[in-house]
Design brief:
Length: 215
């Protein structure tokens, strides 16, 4: 007795028309319409990442990330990208189960380590970021170097203004970010730090979730 398991297909012939009418299926399934199982990339501790190569159609290679611990994240306002650790998966609009199992997918909201960005900001602007008190604005006495270096640093420190909601997160050492790559296709979990209305929206969603209401 031979058991045959059904393949995953990505055709749309079985779906109804946009008007609601049923389609007549005029041909059978095709090999090129088959899909593969979801990667379900898991967040793991440092040094435990696992990536597999998958041969795709045409001899192309896909990189299937099974376990990841870090990624490259972009800070849009400061035009700065750093590699940093992913600490936790906190929100997923499609499925809460993916949050519970710490599954990394495109569009999920994660908490990342703020240290690389904080270090860069303080080196670039010479201003303490994430301090409990007001950020210390640089004075010529604080910088060693030529008069040009001192003037440049002082001007930069005046221009160092970031969104209060983002600055608050730096105090905790964790920043909310969104994954924009596809870990199951590219083998990477890259993304961007949330800012502006997008950050406000997800903070509101997380607050709803925390208070027990349906997000």
């Amino acid at each position: 007795h031979l058991e045959v398991s059904m393949a995953i297909t990505r055709d749309s012939r079985h779906k109804r028309r946009h008007t609601g009418g049923r389609r007549n299926v005029h041909k059978k399934k095709r090999k090129f319409e088959t899909g593969r199982q979801a990667a379900m990339t898991k967040l793991v501790g440092a040094g435990e990442k696992r990536i597999r190569q998958v041969r795709a159609r045409g001899g192309n290679i896909k990189y299937r990330a099974l376990r990841l611990d870090s990624g490259n994240f972009s800070w849009g306002q400061e035009v700065c990208t750093k590699k940093t650790r992913i600490l936790d998966v906190v929100y997923n609009a499609s499925n809460n189960e993916l949050v519970r199992t710490k599954t990394l997918v495109k569009g999920c909201i994660v908490q990342i380590d703020a240290t690389p960005f904080k270090t860069w900001y303080e080196t670039h602007y010479k201003v303490a970021l994430g301090a409990k008190k007001e950020a210390h604005v640089l004075t010529p006495a604080d910088v060693k170097g030529s008069s040009h270096v001192v003037r440049k640093a002082a001007n930069l420190s005046k221009a160092a203004a970031i969104e209060p909601a983002v600055a608050e997160q730096f105090q905790t050492g964790r920043v909310l970010a969104c994954i924009s790559s596809r870990p199951g296709q590219s083998g990477r979990a890259d993304g961007y730090i949330l800012e502006g209305p997008e950050l406000a929206f997800y903070q509101k969603q997380l607050l709803k979730k925390k208070s027990g209401k349906k997000a």
